[in-house]
Amino acid sequence: MLYKQFFLPKLQLLYLGENYYLSGNFPRFSENNSLVDLVLQSTNFSGELPTSMGNLKSLQTLDSSNCQFSGSIPASLGNLKSLQALDLSDWLWISPIANSQDPCQFSGSIPASLGNLKSLQTLDLSDCQFSGSIPASLENLTQITTLNLDGNHFSGEIPNVFYNLRNLNFLYLASNNLSGQIPPSIGNLTNLHSLDVSQNQLEGANPSPVNEFSSLSYVGLGYNLLNGTIPSWLYTLPSLVELDLSHNKLIGHIGEFQFDSLEMIDLSMNELHGSIPTSIFELVNLSSLYVFSNNLNGVPETSVHSNSMLPNIESIDLSNNNISGIFSWNVGKNTLFYMNLSYNSISGFEMLPWSIMKILDLRSNLLQGPLPTPPNSIYFFLVSHNKLSGEISPLICKASYMNILDISHNNLSGMLPHCLGNFSKDLFVLNVRRNQFHGTIPQTFLKGNSIRTLDFNGNQLEGLVPRSLNICRELEVLDLGNNKINDMFPHYLGALPKLQILVLRSNHFHGHIGFSKIKSPFMSLRIIDLAHNDFEGDLPEMYLRSLKAVMNINEGNMTREYMGGSYYLNRVMTMRKLPYYQDSIMVTIKGSEIKFEKILNTFTTIDLSCNKFQGQIPDCIGNLNSLRGLNLSHNYLTGHIPLSFKILNVLESLDLSSNKLSGRIPQELTSLTFLEVLNLSQNHLTGFIPRGNQFEAFENYSYYGNPGLCGFPLSKRCTVDEVLKSS
To answer: How many CB atoms are closer than 10 A to CB 341?
Structure first.
């Protein structure tokens, strides 16, 4: 650690950087010193910068980046007239010391006295906690080449202080709370290489440069409120490599680019219209093109271009536009790995022999004809919500690296290729929902497979549930609903440790569910839909007792998230986590059939309705105190409503209608304050209807068909004896 007093008057260089275990505080500095370079970067020093640092009159470099310092910048640093580099930043690093990766704790405003540092060439205060306005005194830093204030809490307008900063090469003001317009003096920075003011609240039109930005290679204006058209000068920058105007309010057409230096264009999330300019295809260095979520239309004519157009393109995202027609871009044969054309009106797609294509997203278009066979290199193939027809070619099984195959919501028919269950050991989503497939479900699955979602809902599949599913140890979602499967209850699925969702509704399942030989079956199951089958016998009490995922959930200690996953895509030189697939489900709850486009990890429901179950409702259902929906309607259940239901304290929907239940409605159910929908109709219930809390809102239809009930909201009043019996 450093001593309280700095006693080395002749020391000129003190380099302690990257000594991760070195800790302590700054000493007090006297005026009698010769220190020129002080480098403490990536150490564990902490505390505040002492005012006595203003005594280091010979100091040229002060680097305390990635340390644990806190507090504000002392105004006395303005006395360091020889200082050329000041770095207090907290750029990303990995320390071997536990608890040493806290964000930079420097805070407060930048003292105006820093404007006195006439020799300063680098000022880096990025990724700290600084706030307030950017001081106008920075206009005095005429020698500065790098100004980096990224990742702080600066607010107010960017000061118009750049007229004299002719040497500035790098200006980074991103990820703050800056507002107002981009100052016109930025147009004077003729030596600028990088400009990044993204992720602020800047508005208005982009400034026009006074002189040409001949060296400008990076422009980052994304995630602001900029409006108007794309300024013409951005199309004429001879050195521009990356252009990010995403997430603004820009309108008009995309113009023609004059130079081919561009490697990345991001114009996504604006209000641009018209077609994609032909000059795009002449950008021989372009690797990334993102124009998703605009109002672009048409499909560009590419026949006039050579076979080698966009020879270096790696990723294309044109999703969420109005692009139509047949898409046949002959681009990136050996380089393209990501293409997203989803949510357009494309009617045809020419599959090219892309050798390294990994992600191809064609969802929600108007594609017709047979299913395109993806390249063998594909990882994610998403073509749901189109108008594809015909059979699946077995050639699809050559894509042995496939992770996601989603062909749901089309008009595909024929039999499913038997290889679909075992063609890829990396497959974790297979979704063929809402097509017209017939025959059986693929019967063979690879041992050690990665499958987590199998969705066969809404076809005409028949036969038995494959017993080989018991080796799908990663399986979380199994949806076999709305088919013609004729089988007994698949007890062996109870051994799957991660199964959360099981949908067997609207098939021909039959017989007693009974007991399981597995000690604790279905311990992760939280959404169960067996409705509209021919199950009979008693309700499966053993299984209901085993549903640990529906018991004692402490949502306060859970991270609420949707079921699905993510993939990493290198965009704008950062690794952004993007959603690739999210599970969906159709459930009958609160009296309506509802489609959940996303499934929260806290959602729970049990639907055993429309079967032939009989006997009493087991008391153990009361232990499922994290249950949101319970539907036991349209069976042959008898006996009383269990008092244990009072423990279902987050229950939102309870449907026991069309059974043979008798006795009174327990007054204790009024404690279910989350209950929104109650249906006890068409039973043999008697006595006084409870009053209080949610029961004040339920209407007649909750109780009709029970001639023995009386009291609000029914017109039948209770006798004194009925009231006394119910109290």
So the answer is: 25
The one-letter amino acid code at 107 reads S
Tens-digit pLDDT profile for residues 226-280: 999 999 999 999 999 999 999 999 999 999 999 999 999 999 999 999 999 989 9
Beta bridge partners of 566: 579
Q: Mean pLDDT across the stretch 473-479?
A: 96
What gap in Å lies between CA 176 and CA 133, rounded to an integer? 11
3-state secondary structure 372-441: CCCCCCCCEEECCCCEEEECCCHHHHHCCCCCEEECCCCEEEEECCHHHHCCCCCCCEEECCCCEEEEEC
Burial class (CB in 10 A: 0-12, 13-18, 19+), 79: middle
Select from 353, 278, 279, 360 the least CA-distant residue to 319.
360
Tokens encoding 583: 């599970």
Q: What are phi and psi of 670, to 5 degrees?
A: -70, -10
Residue type, position 508, single letter: H
Tokens standing for residue 692: 């209080």
What is the C-alpha to C-alpha distance for residues 349 and 202, in angstroms, rounded to an integer? 39
Mean pLDDT, all residues of the chain = 90
- Cβ within 8 Å of residue 260, ≥6 positions away: 282, 283, 284, 285
Whether residue 60 is predicted with pLDDT greater than 90 in this model: the reply is yes
Q: Per the structure block, which two tokens stand in for 32?
A: 């009698």
Q: Are 441 and 417 in contact (CB under 8 A)?
A: no
Question: 592-596 and 585-589: which strand pairing?
Answer: antiparallel
pTM: 0.89
The CA dihedral of 40, 43, 49, 53, to the nearest 10 degrees, is -20
Measure the CA–CA gap between 236 and 257, rounded to whole angstroms: 7
> What is the pLDDT averaged over residues 104-113?
90
End-to-end CA distance of the chain: 76
Give the least confident one: 409-418, 530-539, 549-558, 706-715: 549-558
